[in-house]
Amino acid sequence: MHNMSKGGTNLWCIFGAFCALLAASCSSSPLPSRTPSPEATIVITPISSAGCGKPVPTPPGETVYGTVFLGGLIRTYLLHIPSGYQANSSEAVVLSFHGHGSNAFQQERRSGMSLLSDQQGFIAVYPQGVVGPDGQTGWATGALNRPRVNDVLFVSDLLNHLQAILCVDPHRIYATGFSNGGGMTNVLACTLAGRLAAFAPVSGAYPPYPGGCHPVRPVPLLEFHGTADPIVPYSGNARKGYPPILTWLQGWATRDGCTMGPTVFYKQVNVTGLEWTNCQGNAIVIQYRISGEGHVWPRATFNKPGGTAVSSLSASALIWSFFQQHPLSGTFR
To answer: Residue 238: exposed, middle, or buried by beta-carbon count in 10 A (0-12, 13-18, 19+)?
Structure first.
């Protein structure tokens, strides 16, 4: 199949993804579907990967389309296995969630995570949201008109599936996402903190999660937001239920038990880095606030904090650097 991370367009894939998205009848997927009986419960703790040593299900370095059968729905995703993947070497997984009205293909292009995957050796996964009451794709974050499906169960089952076919490091599974996908990243921080190690939403919309946010541990969190975002305003939107971004960040700092912050640790021409520290566990809350930036995946480059040599990183590279510093601690069965 075409390597879509290099700009190719695979019309069959696009047709197949949305055909499956609407639960229509399609030809078979390049990747094997799950067994017909998916997990009915959400797995909230790390599990070992049965996929270590198994033949690679798709050519490394390519992006392919796969399916998971869940609750009567065919759920879809894009998978990019890094070009240097070895079947006996456990790799990190980065889940990257698209925004409202977008799709997995656009998220791959927007984030550049597949190219970074090849450079850095992690597995990049782009889950596909279903169509909500407003006729647009999205994630069930609690916002009005968003899908009414159990997306947390979808993520849990998708991870079970990936760990059955690939060699995944259970301590290095991460989530990032844009806009509504940033909101989904926030939901996973609230609900799957026992299984996912760290979280990095970008320009996220964070409506209150139904039932509240009760992570099982303090979580490392990195967020990017533009001060001129018209879709998810930095100062919040009461009508849509979006809190001011600083209020939302402080909420996470409180849940993480951080006793210091926000303090400015980074200053560029139009970028201010804020951090909440002295948190419980290995948690930290970091935000890069970009003055004058709108509702986009950050176009700015960032000087790598720390160290004497100054290197310039994209937002995605900075996210990966943050993830590398925050694996899940502890043992698993």
So the answer is: exposed
